[in-house]
């Protein structure tokens, strides 16, 4: 049981480049989330999805786009990377209704130079 | 807007001592989650608290929830080095709302 898998684990981008982070879960969860973690800031929500084909903005959505074309996958895109997007990105998923904890992927460490 | 505050943000404890981490939140909720994160690792679920007065214990950690005070505590009993980690609390509300996290408490247990 793989749980939540993020690809890639590490990436270095130049300013202005684009990339897509992939999150895949094999638990048939409805809800999926993208957070970023920065020192002293905790985890901040970027975008989230409550089901296939749906997405919503979180606390810090600017500079990111997402898509949930398949229930098991949630993609996070950076169209034109900026140094301020240097961070550790975590994907998470949970069953559907509330009252349950979220399960996290192993994280993607992104550096924008 | 739901806000979650933890204190302290940094905690250095001696082995064998007891201490409590506090988690306050700003709007009504009866659902609170505690996570642990080791350096360079992902977040691991510790406790799920779903009602006023809920108490859960695992080893040297005990978590409780007071929804009237909008407060959860994570109590550490007789700390050991293996408990060194960052602990996060998170809150959500009824419906499809996502988890909102506190900034975390970095715990260091020293001999």
Q: Could you characterize the architecture of this molecule?
A:
The complex is a heterodimer of chains A (113) and B (111). Helices cover 0% and strands 51% of the residues of chain A. With 113 residues, chain A is mainly beta. In chain A, strands 2, 4, 5, 6, 9, 10 and 11 form a 7-stranded mixed sheet that branches. In chain A, strand 5 (42-49) and strand 6 (56-57) form a beta hairpin. The termini of chain A are far apart. Chain B has strands at residues 4-7, 10-14, 19-25, 32-37, 43-49, 55-58, 61-66, 71-76, 85-91, 100-101, 105-110. The mean pLDDT of chain B is 94. In chain B, the strands form 2 sheets. In chain B, strands 2, 4, 5, 9, 10 and 11 form a 6-stranded mixed sheet that branches. The A-B interface holds A 31, 33, 35, 40-45, 48, 50, 58, 90, 92, 98-107 and B 9, 31, 33, 35, 41-45, 48, 50, 88, 90, 92-104.
Topology of helices and strands:
The complex is a heterodimer of chains A (113) and B (111).
Chain A: E1 4-7, E2 10-13, E3 19-25, E4 31-38, E5 42-49, E6 56-57, E7 64-67, E8 73-78, E9 87-94, E10 103-104, E11 108-112
Parallel strand pairs in A: 2-11
Antiparallel strand pairs in A: 1-3, 3-8, 4-5, 4-9, 5-6, 7-8, 9-10, 9-11
Chain B: E1 4-7, E2 10-14, E3 19-25, E4 32-37, E5 43-49, E6 55-58, E7 61-66, E8 71-76, E9 85-91, E10 100-101, E11 105-110
Parallel strand pairs in B: 2-11
Antiparallel strand pairs in B: 1-3, 3-8, 4-5, 4-9, 6-7, 7-8, 9-10, 9-11
């Amino acid at each position: 049981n793989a749980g939540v898998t993020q690809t890639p684990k590490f990436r270095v981008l130049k300013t202005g480049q684009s990339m897509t982070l992939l999150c895949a879960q094999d638990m048939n969860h409805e809800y999926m989330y993208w957070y970023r973690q920065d020192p002293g800031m905790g985890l901040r929500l970027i975008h989230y999805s409550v089901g296939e084909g749906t997405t919503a903005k979180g606390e810090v959505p600017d500079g990111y786009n997402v898509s949930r074309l398949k229930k098991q996958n949630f993609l996070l895109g950076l169209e034109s990377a900026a140094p301020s997007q240097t961070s550790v990105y975590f994907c998470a998923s949970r069953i559907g209704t509330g009252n349950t904890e979220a399960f996290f992927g192993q994280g993607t460490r992104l550096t924008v130079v | 807007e739901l806000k979650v505050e933890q204190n302290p943000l940094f905690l250095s404890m001696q082995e064998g001592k007891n201490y409590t981490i506090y988690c306050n939140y700003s709007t009504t909720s009866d659902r609170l989650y505690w996570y642990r994160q080791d350096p360079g690792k992902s977040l691991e679920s510790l406790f799920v608290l779903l009602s006023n007065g809920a108490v859960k214990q695992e080893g040297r950690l005990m978590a409780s929830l007071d929804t009237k005070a909008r407060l959860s505590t994570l109590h550490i009993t007789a700390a050991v080095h293996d408990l060194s980690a960052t602990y996060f609390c998170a809150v959500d509300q009824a419906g499809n709302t996502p988890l909102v996290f506190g900034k975390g408490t970095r715990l260091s247990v020293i001999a």
